[in-house]
Amino acid sequence: MGEGRGDTFEGVSTDRLKLELLEEIHMKDVVQLSMLEIRHKIAELEASVNSEHAGNEWKTRYETQMELNDQLEKQIVSLKEKMEKVRGNPSDRLSSIRVYERMPLESLNTLLKQLEKEKRSLESQVKDYALKLEQESKAYHRTNNERRTYIAEMSQVSGLNQVSKKQQMDALPRMKENLVKTEVFMLDHVQRRPKKSFAVSDWRLL
Fold first, then answer.
1. Three-class DSSP category at 37
2. How does DSSP classify residue 193?
3. How many structural domains comprise the chain?
4. Does the predicted model carry a pTM greater than 0.70?
5. Which residues contact 7 (CB under 8 A, 6 or more apart)?
């Protein structure tokens, strides 16, 4: 039998289409398996991160604070250098002004935009530092108030203990006196009791 046209689809044999379909299904299965492995790995990493988050929180805060301190130190150094230039020789200041005068308008506009950007950045950082300082100040005052309350409570308890001890010491002589009086009273009571007389009966021998 000759090759029939019913076995073809736009010039491609059905066997070829079946093979390509199987390859697509295989690739789909491989992709799904890879996705499952990736999701499993992500779940493991999330669990690991969550378990280490509490222990690493202090490290993150420390590194963040150190980074902020480093940025602040750099800005302080830069501002000091600029201040030194401003406070320098008046002729130097005039020469710098002449440099700006010789600059084209476009360059001056670019420089002005850069300075405005730096100004906004510094203002934003100042606000952040002010907010942080305010928060730390509130936390300090709250902790200080708690410390004062604790000290006051401890002083009150200590004062009550001192009062109690003083009252006990003041009451001690009276307790001794009462004890002596009780002993004297008991001794006197015993001495005043009438003695029993025993009559001796005559015994006769039968």
1. helix
2. S
3. 3
4. no
5. 13, 14
